[in-house]
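## retry 2 of 3
previous attempt timed out at serialization; input unchanged, resubmitting
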Amino acid sequence: MDEPMPPGRLAPAGERPTVLVLRALGLGDLLAGVPALRGIRRAFPGHETVLAAPAGLGPAIRATGVVDRHFRTADNGRRVPSLGHWRGAPPAVAIDLHGNGPESHEALAALSPARLLSPARPEPGHPAPPRWRADEHERHRWCRFLDAYGVPADPEDLRIPPPPGPSPAPGAVVLHPGADSGARRWPADRYAAVAARIRDAGHRVVVVTGPGEGELCRSVAGPAGLGPRDTFAATLPFDAFSALIAHARLFLSGDTGPAHLAYAHGAPSVTLFGPVSPHLWGPPPLPRHIALWSEGPPGDPHAAEPDPCLLRLGADTVLGASLDALGRAGPREGATARA
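## retry succeeded, writing output
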């Protein structure tokens, strides 16, 4: 269940002491954790950095280049996975980047690490242990947590390089209307209206969706007048999907994992927020990223129905922000985002 990461210069598993990091969540969580993971790897240069994360994130973990080895866990939503299949020596350091509950702490403690850093239980004897703050941005939260233990990490150090392969639609405006939950899924007819207007303004527009979202893809592309060459309904492997976003002229989506991929690649983006504030999960404060949110009380990001704050974003508002972003963005044909 262990997967070494490239490049080949890295030592094989077991030849160095291990730093085991638990962050067994989704794509957006992985990418928001890149600054923290990068800080950990820098702070322990003589150790092998191992990330415990779902097996399905393997291609994305390889693309980040921030760990030496992927310890694959079950794809079980946001629940803490079992680490009982760990077969190596006890980790020299175990770091909980999964959450602030006792479950993730206990999963790591069961491996008997020499040192365990966890928000649930501060390290014994620490003079000023970090406190969990619910109002803190995810990237800043984990960098502050690590900094308290002498591991410097920069929350803005989130960029990753684009994949080496070409984009299937270089320079296109990419719409991603899907989401893991209905709460973060803006209505398809509004996406279609925005797509049609952007296409009429002279831009190539493509729609991409994930597994099980073929009908959603068609419900946006059809009314927008987009043909088969401009639709990608769960047909792209991760590297091609990543290249599509990295070389997009603009990426428009809800608050989902692919939005964090746009931030990581530095692709211009417009992100629509609903149940969760962009102050907690939004893009870095750069002009190329626009976060739209109709401010309101926090909602359930895993609810089945679109959040009221998300529904208050009208098509004209999103179109205006998109055209403004396109006016500021230069040509993206063949563009390269450098880490």
